[in-house]
Amino acid sequence: MNYMPEHSSRSPEGHGHDPARPAVRAEDLTVVRGTRTVLRGLGFTVPRGRITGLLGPSGCGKSTLMRSIVGTQSKVTGTLDVLGRPAGHPALRTRVGYVTQAPSVYDDLTVRQNLDYFAGILDPGRAAADRRRADVTRVVADVDLTTHADALAGNLSGGQRSRVSLAVALLGAPELLVLDEPTVGLDPVLRRDLWALFHSIAADRGATILVSSHVMDEAERCHRLLLMREGEVLADDTPDALRTRTGSETVEEAFLHLVDEAKTDAAARTKETTR
Question: Which H or E element spans position 45?
Fold first, then answer.
């Protein structure tokens, strides 16, 4: 299984709840895999209670960064604080929800059975039975799978199975949701509905969402953006500020402008060192 479903509504921890502190703070964050440096000295913050989009082409390091944040990535150096704790700290296990690109559910269980199973792990004991049932009912409705609750996960479409994984991560209402390309392969209507859910989670529940995508039009749905390319952060700002800064009409145009700018700067540095 390649996910880490978490919850936070009953967390006894009092650390990291200061709204003035960022949900995620990175300084000189570096990840080396073999001979390749995947993340190159990243520095950024993710504000609390907002949707931050992590955008960039496939292979730029988005998934590696997300694994680093949830504590499942090896060979990470630099500073990476999550909800006031070092990334991967045991106290974060009940406060962070993580959804990978590949759906992570048991195909031989129904949607409800999958959720009942994981809810039992997150909130065990007979005394919590009513709370678990309410939690499962809530997340099934959140991801619009009420009519498929008793269907085997293995019989669902790819998009429906992805929604089950999202429902697992929503169990217990985590403080931070880390979503790795959750809308890939979904139809436009479902994508729209999921983004409405993300905004509801951030606005109504106060959760922080970090969501990755390589589809630039989804950038317009985020409060803040981290634009990545080749293991580096090109920009950390709001969509409006990025458009203004680059004189662009869309975030995609702004991204391309920043890519060209980075190439020009790199060429100038190379020329300077060869003199």
Answer: strand 36-46
CA distances from 205 to 52, 150, 152, 166, 191 (A): 16, 28, 30, 16, 20
Decide: helix, strand or coil at residue 59. Answer: coil
- 120-129: Cβ within 8 A, 24+ apart: 122/5, 122/6, 122/7, 122/94, 122/171, 122/172, 123/7, 123/10, 123/172
Q: In what order do the strands lie in the sheet with 24-33?
A: 36-46, 24-33, 76-82, 85-86
Enumerate residue ranges in the chain where pLDDT < 70.
1-19, 270-272, 274-275
Residue 148 near residue 111 (C-beta atoms within 8 A) = yes
Give the three-class secondary structure for 204.
helix
Residue keyed to tokens 């309410």: 134
According to the model, what pLDDT value does residue 202 have? 94
CA 205 to chain centre: 16
User: Cβ(68)–Cβ(39) under 8 Å?
Assistant: yes
Question: What gap in Å lies between CA 137 and CA 132, rounded to an integer?
Answer: 9
pLDDT in tens, 152-174: 999 998 888 888 999 999 998 89
Pairing outcome for strands 208-213 and 176-180: parallel
What does the pLDDT read at residue 18? 60
AA letter at 202: A
Domains, the chain, ordered by start: 5-95+177-274 (3.40.50.300), 102-173 (no CATH)
pLDDT value, residue 9: 37
Q: What is the pLDDT of residue 58?
A: 86
- Model's pTM, two decimal places? 0.85
